Automatic annotation (TrEMBL):
<keyword id="KW-0806">Transcription termination</keyword>
<keyword id="KW-0804">Transcription</keyword>
<dbReference type="InterPro" id="IPR003690">
    <property type="entry name" value="MTERF"/>
</dbReference>
<keyword id="KW-0805">Transcription regulation</keyword>
<keyword id="KW-0809">Transit peptide</keyword>
<dbReference type="Pfam" id="PF02536">
    <property type="entry name" value="mTERF"/>
</dbReference>
<dbReference type="GO" id="GO:0006353">
    <property type="term" value="P:DNA-templated transcription termination"/>
</dbReference>
<comment type="similarity">
    <text>Belongs to the mTERF family.</text>
</comment>
<protein>
    <submittedName>
        <fullName>Uncharacterized protein</fullName>
    </submittedName>
</protein>
<dbReference type="InterPro" id="IPR038538">
    <property type="entry name" value="MTERF_sf"/>
</dbReference>
Length: 426
């Protein structure tokens, strides 16, 4: 409609005679050119409109902690370093570290040209009043770009009605600050309505949003699909494990989720054992397929554990082989050799528990009478440090499995290209 009106007006303008009596029909008319070409915004796509990076801006961004490449790629132009300095000083006064500020500038460099007192301070005051830590806020600096009156305040007021207490609001934002970027009318209200339609009571909705506020970023269809998947695992919407299972599936695409289940089944895990394991420890499906394969092969092929035992204690899938399981195997091996513990010990039970609990029970307890137990533990921990710098062959524990290289031998292991895992023990 708008285009046709413009076309008619241009045609009418073309018919107006020249004041000088010039015959316009004999001269190239730019209006003819406009009308004869189907110009659109896409015609400008190939025209380089961006200006070359400003050296002063690049230098300043580098001083903020950005890499030279990232600084040069930024389209920001800092006209006043005084204002940018004031922004950084303001962020520091609210508890942001230089590393936090560097991350924020890398993600949203436009922060440096905002008015620190008029635009930034009121938003920082809001998050400070809620108790949201600067470290968590620095992971989603786009929140500081949101309108205070039109977005942040209305969304937080809505969350008060759903979550109930300020502490729950703080925890929800701290766990998933990105969820607060969701639109109140387009995302938050429809999400709560969808959860109610699917059978959740207000208390259950409050708990679910408190543990995974990113649910606001999902469509009603995706939320419904997650509910169906959890119900297929006999997780009741009113059960205590439903919210945690929901949080896990929010972090996986459905295709990825189905691949992880198929991988566990390929090792012979029955549907019943898989169901029980997921209920106990739903994060077992958040591990990469490579890590799942590596751990199951180690537990089944090297430690000779029963598959049912591993699935009966699925938390062991969250333990780092290099940082936790291998050093513990070395300690238990020494104690078995010295006759301090029975060879038929329930191995999976001995391997579980916190580092302090294991150390107290198996290392410090025997340190005086069996000095080798401390040496075995320290040697393996030292090997871990070396392995973090040069990837080692797939680890094996020599004393539990005779014939394999010891932790001391693994110090000199050559790099094989397999990255050591750095996942922390849960």
């Amino acid at each position: 409609m708008f285009a046709s009106i413009c076309r008619r007006r241009l045609l009418r303008f073309r018919q107006i005679p020249s004041a000088a009596g010039t015959d316009l029909s004999r001269r190239p008319n730019p209006i003819d050119a406009l009308l004869s070409h189907g110009y659109s915004s896409s015609a400008l796509a190939g025209i380089p409109l961006s200006k070359p990076p400003c050296p002063a801006t690049v230098s300043y961004l580098v001083s903020c902690g950005l890499s030279p490449a990232a600084a040069a790629a930024s389209k920001l132009r800092i006209r006043s370093t005084d204002k940018a300095d004031a922004v950084r000083a303001l962020l520091r006064s609210y508890g942001f570290t230089d590393a936090d500020i560097a991350e924020m500038v890398r993600r949203t460099p436009v922060l440096l040209i905002l008015d620190p007192d008029r635009i930034l301070r009121p938003k920082l005051d809001l998050f400070a009043s809620l108790g949201v830590s600067p470290r968590r806020l620095s992971t989603t600096p786009h929140l500081i770009l949101c309108s205070l009156d039109n977005h942040l305040v209305p969304c937080i007021q809505f969350l008060r009605g759903v979550l109930g207490t300020e502490s729950h609001i703080r925890d929800a934002i701290s766990r998933a600050p990105r969820g607060l970027l969701a639109s109140l009318e387009k995302n938050m209200r429809p999400t709560v309505a969808t959860l109610r339609r699917l059978g959740l009571h207000d208390q259950s909705i409050s708990k679910l949003i408190a543990v995974e506020m990113c649910v606001f970023m999902f469509s009603p269809d995706r939320i419904s699909q997650i509910f169906e998947d959890l119900k297929s695992f006999d997780l009741s919407v009113t059960g205590t494990g439903f919210a945690h299972g929901f949080r896990v599936l929010c972090r996986l695409s459905r295709e990825n989720w189905l691949r992880k289940l198929a991988l566990y089944r390929s090792f012979g895990v029955s549907e019943g054992d898989l169901l029980k394991a997921f209920k106990k420890h739903p994060t077992m499906v958040l591990l990469s397929e490579e890590i799942i394969t590596k751990k199951l092969r180690f537990y089944l092929d090297e430690l000779k554990l029963e598959l049912s035992d591993v699935m009966g204690q699925p938390v062991i899938m969250g333990y780092s082989l290099e940082k936790s399981i291998i050093p513990r195997c070395a300690v238990l091996s020494v104690l078995m050799r010295e006759g301090k513990i029975e060879p038929n010990i329930k191995l999976i039970t001995a391997l579980l528990g916190s580092t302090k609990k294991f150390s107290d029970k198996y290392v410090l307890r025997f340190a005086y009478n069996v000095p080798d137990v401390v040496k075995a533990y320290e040697d393996c921990m030292f090997a871990i440090i070396l392995a973090s710098k040069a990837c080692c062959d797939f680890p094996k524990c020599s004393v539990l499995m005779p014939g394999y290289p010891s932790c001391m031998d693994r110090r000199a292991a050559k790099s094989s290209g397999i990255q050591t895992e750095t996942k922390k023990e849960e």
